[in-house]
From TrEMBL, chains A, B:
PANTHER family: SPADETAIL (PTHR11267:SF204), T-BOX PROTEIN-RELATED (PTHR11267). It comes from Owenia fusiformis (Polychaete worm). The lineage of its organism: Eukaryota, Metazoa, Spiralia, Lophotrochozoa, Annelida. Residues 35-118, 321-375 are annotated as: Disordered. It is found in: Nucleus. GO terms for cellular component: chromatin; nucleus. Its main location: nucleus. The keyword Magnesium does not apply. This is Uncharacterized protein.
Amino acid sequence: MDVQVIRGMYGINRIKGEDYKLKRKREKLKLLDHNENEKEKKENIVVGNKIESRGVDEKLLKSPPKSMLKTPPKSMLKTPPKSMLKTPKSQGQQYPGFMGSHDVKPRPPPHQTPQDKDKNIRIKLENNDLWQKFHTLGTEMIITKTGRRMFPIFKILLEGLDPHAKYILLVDLVPIDDCRYKYHNSEWVVTGKAEPHMPGRLYIHPDSPASGAHWMKQSVSFHKMKLTNNNLDQNGHIILNSMHKYQPRFHVVQANDIFTMRWNSFNTYSFEETSFIAVTAYQNEQITQLKIDNNPFAKGFRDNGMGRRDRLPHFGKRMIGLESSITSDSEEDKEGDKKRVRASVSASESSSASIETKDKPHTDTPTSTYKELSRPISNSLSALNRMRNQTSRNPLLPPSCQYFPQSSSSYFPSPDVYYQHAAPSGTSVNYPTSSLPACQLSGQSSAVSSSISGSFGLTTSTALAHTTLPPSHTSLPSCNYMQAGQAYSAITPNVMGMPGHFQ
Amino acid sequence: MDVQVIRGMYGINRIKGEDYKLKRKREKLKLLDHNENEKEKKENIVVGNKIESRGVDEKLLKSPPKSMLKTPPKSMLKTPPKSMLKTPKSQGQQYPGFMGSHDVKPRPPPHQTPQDKDKNIRIKLENNDLWQKFHTLGTEMIITKTGRRMFPIFKILLEGLDPHAKYILLVDLVPIDDCRYKYHNSEWVVTGKAEPHMPGRLYIHPDSPASGAHWMKQSVSFHKMKLTNNNLDQNGHIILNSMHKYQPRFHVVQANDIFTMRWNSFNTYSFEETSFIAVTAYQNEQITQLKIDNNPFAKGFRDNGMGRRDRLPHFGKRMIGLESSITSDSEEDKEGDKKRVRASVSASESSSASIETKDKPHTDTPTSTYKELSRPISNSLSALNRMRNQTSRNPLLPPSCQYFPQSSSSYFPSPDVYYQHAAPSGTSVNYPTSSLPACQLSGQSSAVSSSISGSFGLTTSTALAHTTLPPSHTSLPSCNYMQAGQAYSAITPNVMGMPGHFQ
DNA sequence: CAGATTATCACCTACGTGAGAAGT
DNA sequence: ATACTTCTCACGTAGGTGATAATC
């Protein structure tokens, strides 16, 4: 029946503009009041290798995938947020006592294993409520040849670092399974075995290395990271395959610079709600709408309430000559169409600042603009092995890929450490590095130098506050602490960022 | 007679818009063909403590000040550039063999003194031809409460660094004399003694510390530095007094980080043509026009040839209620006024890249856009004493200030080192630090950490090429090598950039 | 044909710039 | 009235965003 209504999204070329727009508009009305429920926040806190998930309904996290994706979008979007919240909390700050408070006593992590690299580190996904919204629908991330940023932005709150020690913070993306997907009849289905994963580049936060005090001062934002589908990318962006699922991982390494960084001292974490499918065009319209509603750069696509006529139609200029007049003549259409809103746009929010790079907005939903600079570090590194992930990790995407268990041995040649909070680093966990492509460092564009933040030896006011936490539930991790063990091998410079490669 | 035509510039409030515009337009026609003479470049190269000035007419540098500022602008602008050029050179690159060439043998600097901190360092002001144009007219720099960038941009080419050592690069601004000026009858005249100079902040290049290879890879741009007249500035901008003259100084310090930076190992240079008067509004219209013609951000004020009507008049919204309708109604004025030029704007130039911060254009005249990131470093440092400058240093601004010699003792408590290429660092050069305000570190906005560029140990292709140079002329220095001696005292952190000071 | 990718566009954010009006 | 200083604005640059049409 409605199987034919929108066959994937590629009906675009046939189901033309207006129909599609109306459809999205209808759905948007439903989405809107959902988006208003912004203030109730879940909190997922990690202490050492422990995972603390607060306010998330356990059942929801474990079971919903298939059913949620199959149910018509509208019916399901109205309920989950409220019901998911066990602890309303209603604190002004997401994580009270986390940033800048002095008076909360440290509490020893409830579960320590000798393998922990740094058991005192506690992290939190800053904007996890927004991530959760996307995750519920099945997050998609656009990848382009020139590189596209992620949205929502990957932002981490850190605690428990040594304020005076220096750390390097990085993110990489690992395949979730070994399947290729397609979006069929409004759901993601497996279509085959995955393409080979390109050498997994690392995105090193531009401030790295910086002191623990620096990293804990405010959340650490990775908004400048870009994803590309260009296997030959020379800009240091992270290379992904379209229609494949990925999981961002966050690494904390205490090191004074890249060369002294020891791969076996990685503290690695991941958040389920940040998993996504890489796409070259959005498939799920609800995802599109969620992006439009929350990404400030996409404001131009929001219906601002009323009276505002839609944005001009435009015509790709690829038509080879005839009728190109439409493009060049369409200028007079824009009369007083500008500056309609202006005032009400970017005010009101000035709470959580984030460590990174002045420049661009990098705001998720309600996030303040703040000031900071960043530096380039596209550079050489290497030979990092990916770790194996268990199947069906993302509870909200169907674990329908059958390829992983059988065929993944060459990609995931080692015992699972995923969902395992501390892998015995000195024991049997072993990641042969020979057959794996070297991991390249991913930095922005053309920089050559690494960036090292001086620690200044300042005792900042951000004094390692620890709040008391509920006992951990290893069964419902939103954040996973992963131990790299010997997964990462020698450091070998690669050609990325060498002089002359970029201009 | 024409004394009254434009009394300074503050006739603006009386000699209203149109008259002023017409006047500027007339002058612009004269200025235009002057601006076309872009390709003939002078070269000022510094080797160790030696200054090499090529292609600059000696007389012109020594004498012109008063007379040039008094002559009507038009008559003088057409001649100087051509006549100043002794060595047309006409090389594609400003400094052949400087960037990225391997085959030029190092030549020992012709004059070495034991006091040299690093006699191998050679620097060059990249865009000195543009600076010279401004300097000829008497450069003005706008300062505002929120901070304003400099234009032209201070850009330095470096040579002779140890590729593997780390260096910190900084800029500060020192008062040229102890006078306050005003612009009267189209010339700058002294009106009194200078205001006290605020604690002289340092602008540390965001890439600092970085390897010598990094700094030599391309020119080092300080375009992000901002000037302010707000004595209470909390953003780390450099604080200046309006209507006072300043001289930028460039410092190279070999150090792994800010704390190991030794103040007595500064290699300090300055270029006469970069001196300027700080103003809150432009006084000399020729300066205004030169800025408009060369600063890409001011393109909106250029006459693009023909047919284009002037930009809309606008009305400051400070009027307290009545008639504010003009502002909000003026939207329909803008019809098809957009995207007139579009294509011809930013193409064509892709020669000299510059080390700094992707983000914004930071192009002077013909400079390529390039890619690089930067990082924030507003931070603490301090207790740096300014060095004394000789009077009447800027040959193109009248040395009419009488205050300097008598009253400057507290500001310039030490023997001159300016115009002196190497001060005897271990000898009698002594800069008492007690009575002087601490020098604060100037960084962009809110950052807390210092930034350290890893050296990577890479031997880059920028292999310290030295070209053969004519013998130095200490009598006509465009660049001055300054030895700090013991001018810089202990490093004491200040409050700038401490957590909580900025949000 | 259907699926997937790409180039181009209008429209944003962010911010640098001098003009002009208003404040001091 | 004069000599500045400050605020707001139109108009640039640079670049992120999804829509769309064309292409692969």
